[in-house]
Amino acid sequence: DRNKASTAFERAIGIDPQYVPPYMDLAILQVQEQQWQGAVETTTKALAMDSSLGYASFLQAVGNLNLNEFDAAEQSARAAEKMPHENIPQVHALLADILLRREQYLDAVAEMRKYLEEAPEGQFAEQMKKNLAQLEPHLPVVETAPADAPAPLAP
C-alpha cells in the first residue's frame, strides 16, 4: 500500500535525516502518485545532501514540468543530463518535451536524437520518431562540415 510506504519513508527520514535513500524512495513514490510539489521538495532535500544524484535531478525536473515551472524543469533536467545517466535516457525525452513547450524546436529535435541514440528501442522511441517526422520538414537545414573537412580559407 502506497500510504504505508510513504509513511515508512517519512519515518526513516525522521530517524536519520542525513540518509539519502529514503528521500529518493519517497520522491519516486510522489512522482508515481503525481504529487508534483512534494516530489520537487523531496528531491531538493536529497540534492542538498548529494548534488551528484542524477536521478534526483531527473525526478525534480519531472515534478517541475508538471507544475509548469519550465525554467526550473529545464535546469534540473540539464543537471541530470550532465550526470552519468545510462539508466535514464528519458532525460532527453523530458528535455525535448520542455523545449517543445518553450517552442525551442531545434534544441528539442537535438534532444530527441540523443534519446534515440541512447535508447533506440526505448519506451519513448516511437514517440520521438513520430515527433521528429513531424518537426524536421519544417526546420531549417543546418549545414555541418564533415569532421575531416579542411577549414575554410580566410579571405
Can you tell me about this structure?
There is one protein chain. Helix 3 (36-49) runs antiparallel to helix 4, helix 4 (54-66) packs antiparallel against helix 5 and helix 6 (90-101) runs antiparallel to helix 7. The protein starts with a helix and ends in a 20-residue tail after the last helix. The chain is elongated and about 55 Å long. It is built from 8 helices and no strands. Helices cover 66% and strands 0% of the residues. The protein is an all-alpha fold.
Number of separate helices: 8
Overall structural class, as computed from helix and strand content, comes to: mainly alpha
Mean pLDDT: 90
Portion of residues in beta strands equals under 5%
Outline the low-pLDDT stretches.
none
Distance between the termini: 71 Å
Give the biggest beta sheet.
Answer: none
Give the total of beta strands: 0
Helix content: 55-70%
* SSE pattern: HHHHHHHH
Oligomer: single chain
Tell the overall outline: elongated
Radius of gyration: 19 Å
Structure characteristics:
mainly alpha, 155 residues, 0% strand, elongated, 66% helix
What's the short story on this structure?
The chain is mainly alpha-helical.
Spell out the blueprint of helices and strands:
Blueprint lengths: L1 H14 L5 H12 L3 H14 L4 H13 L3 H13 L7 H12 L3 H14 L6 H11 L20
